[in-house]
């Protein structure tokens, strides 16, 4: 028991060192912009850059739309599979996990070739079309996380009974989905939404290859051209990820309280 | 169901199929294996090889260190309150990939990074003079571990929780030492989970582009970066070779994921 604890502490200290050093290093580096003293110059320079605001705003808008589209696609599907097609569940689950198997760069490669200007659906021909394509690409990347979250949320519900109750009171499918299922899985959707947000904000490959002015390619550009600003950007990006994960924790804790105590 | 099917078909299945089919096509549409055969040229093989080596190294060390940390937290007799923060942090760090991760390591282990400078000024050790370079196989491996280790912790902790206390007690009643318990009881049960996670980590690092690109530009020629350059500007001067390159990536990550799923199903026999 004694030796085990010593080994555990050694492992933990090693882990602490490995994970803390890059974070401290980044923070320290981001403050070094003015010679000799620590200052917030790098942050000031980043925040006052109009391109930062544009790309950051663009990515936030994209993230919000991705969450909406993702929820619109995933919630009805997960509900329908649970209610009517339980036999299809393995298939749907497999499909939702595919974006983790196929590297994103391959997926976007397919998009570029499949939806070019001379194809049946020339999405890359116009700016709006490319935006839509990027949006749907992000939805694909977020699919595994969104589906998992919603499906777990549905597990705690008695979907069949709820649906029958609603139907016998005269509700149609839209009413059932919008006023019964969605409020019940809202917490799950939210936790999927935050992870989607974290993914979309920092995403680089899709945005870069589709030539859209998103935050990821902007960060890369700054990284290639400036010294201290990248570290400041990394600190900002890491804080966003932290906030998203913190919100997921908060939301799941909140959901535990709303459940009836047994 | 219809929107989902249409969506998945149009934006997931079809694009992938297009690449796969393209890998077996000539420029005028006939069937061919030349594209795949063309993959076997030294420069492309070399980049596959370095990609595989990096992925193996990060998966192996990610598994080893992640396992040690997860074991320390679950079984090592550390205070209980440590567990929550470590799991939360793992959730954050496993998602902290991409461009910012590269910046973080440049700021830490780059030529002017904190650790480099501290080692030089306080201990007189210039790691760059000793052949260390962040923009290399070794540097990339260290960087990737930042998201690989947390992923391992997240996946393996439930498996470690599944080790029943009774097994340990039974083993020690029969006179087994701690080492014997691990070697004869615990590890054989965990083996499928461990190997499966290894495969998953392998696939995870094999497909990663952003971190490597932001870190090294295009100086380190791993497969995803080569493909990135190919999509941008057809550097291979053969679009169909690009398809073949992408197809090769799908095959490799596909095999790795298949191993993961297969072994995961096996490991669930014990951990119930």
From TrEMBL, chain A:
* Spans traversing the lipid bilayer: 7-25, 56-79, 91-114, 126-147, 185-210, 230-252
Gene3D superfamilies linked: MetI-like
Family, according to the entry, reads as follows: Belongs to the binding-protein-dependent transport system permease family.
Membrane topology designation = Multi-pass membrane protein
Mind listing the UniProt keywords for this protein, alphabetically? Cell inner membrane, Cell membrane, Membrane, Transmembrane, Transmembrane helix, Transport
Extract one GO cellular component term from the record.
Answer: plasma membrane
Signal peptide (from-to) = none
Q: Coiled coil: which residue ranges?
A: none
Any one GO BP annotation for this protein: transmembrane transport
Q: Which InterPro entries match?
A: MetI-like, MetI-like_sf
Q: Which organism is it from?
A: Thioclava dalianensis
At the highest ranks, the source species' classification is:
Bacteria, Pseudomonadati, Pseudomonadota, Alphaproteobacteria, Rhodobacterales
ABC transmembrane type-1 domain boundaries: 56-249
Lineage, top-rank taxon, reads Bacteria
Record localization = Cell inner membrane; Cell membrane
What is the protein name for this chain? Spermidine/putrescine ABC transporter permease
Q: What is its main location?
A: membrane
